[in-house]
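Each field is listed here:
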Amino acid sequence: MATQRLIWRDEYLIGVDELDWEHQDLFQRLNELHDALAKSDDLEAIEDCLGEIHARVESHFALEEQYMRANKFAGYEAHKDEHDEFLEVLVELAKGILDSPEPERRDNLEFQLQAWVINHVITSDRDLATTV
């Protein structure tokens, strides 16, 4: 397996305690997916893990969006669009891996999820926290 577990670093903190906690929780969920993909050919376990990630991401985005609205964040629409697009990508990647779980797809799924989350936290979420 080419992808590694995510390691939380304080540089990912954005300074909003609730959101920081949820980001750390999301890292943990992605690490659970990593473990499921690395150790299991059990598609049901992988599907459960992906379902949990989707549910947590939806909940997290709802919290973030409420925070943006409450603080009248000027970049709300663009930030929400990023969330909506990611949820669509997550669903498509999950369908793909469940239809055809070969190692290359597993690596691609994990790489794309990890890269998006880290990039979003250190760019868009940090911008949100520093401009509110």
